[in-house]
Specification:
mainly beta; single chain; OB fold (Dihydrolipoamide Acetyltransferase, E2P); elongated; 182 residues; 14% helix
Length: 182
């Protein structure tokens, strides 16, 4: 089922270059994790899509399977952010999305984005085109893919530290010790 999620926060974006699923496996994909406010319109739409896909794929077993997969990231794409110790995840739900096809990336005016534009970035807010689907067989579960992201607005960037500013440095004078700095 296709969804358009609006104003969700972006985390762990691999949206300009595909990365290997596991190092050395040769299976490249694009990734985006979307943080969703519980109880929001986007949360309800995501839960409804998951339920509909599960019912279509698994019939009467859908509810039991969904309950058993609820907190298993290997089986379920929509998880409780409180289970992770990442910036911005507390009190949120997160939707892990992957695709083998490069997603469409747009700015707020629907202009194409490149990596040099500096957006989208981890921590910004995006509108996302997402597909929820059921996978059957050996690796059964509920998955999510994405086909496009539109930058919606800035947010505090997620990172392991703060960005450097010019104020973090001193002026280097040209004195006799200047050569020792190189």
């Amino acid at each position: 089922m296709d969804l358009k999620l609006q104003g969700v926060r972006l985390s762990f974006p691999d949206v300009f270059k595909a990365v290997e699923y596991q190092t050395g496996d040769g299976k490249f994909r694009f990734n985006a994790t979307l943080l969703v406010v519980p109880g929001s319109k986007e949360d309800k739409a995501t839960r409804d899509a998951i339920k509909a896909e599960a019912l279509a794929a698994y019939g009467k077993k859908a509810d039991a399977l969904l309950k058993s997969w609820e907190n298993n990231a290997n089986k379920f794409c929509y998880l409780d952010g409180n289970l992770k110790e990442y910036d911005g995840y507390e009190g949120m739900m997160y939707l892990a999305c992957h695709t083998k096809t490069r997603p469409l990336l747009l700015d707020e005016n629907k202009n194409p984005l490149s990596e040099e534009d500096g957006k989208p970035y981890a921590g910004c807010y995006v509108n996302a085109l997402v597909s929820i689907y059921a996978q059957k067989g050996e690796n059964a579960g509920i998955r999510a893919s994405f086909s496009g992201l539109q930058f919606a607005r800035h947010g505090d960037a997620f990172s392991s530290g703060k960005a450097a500013t010019p104020d973090d440095f001193d002026v280097v004078d040209g004195g006799e010790d200047a050569g020792d700095l190189i």
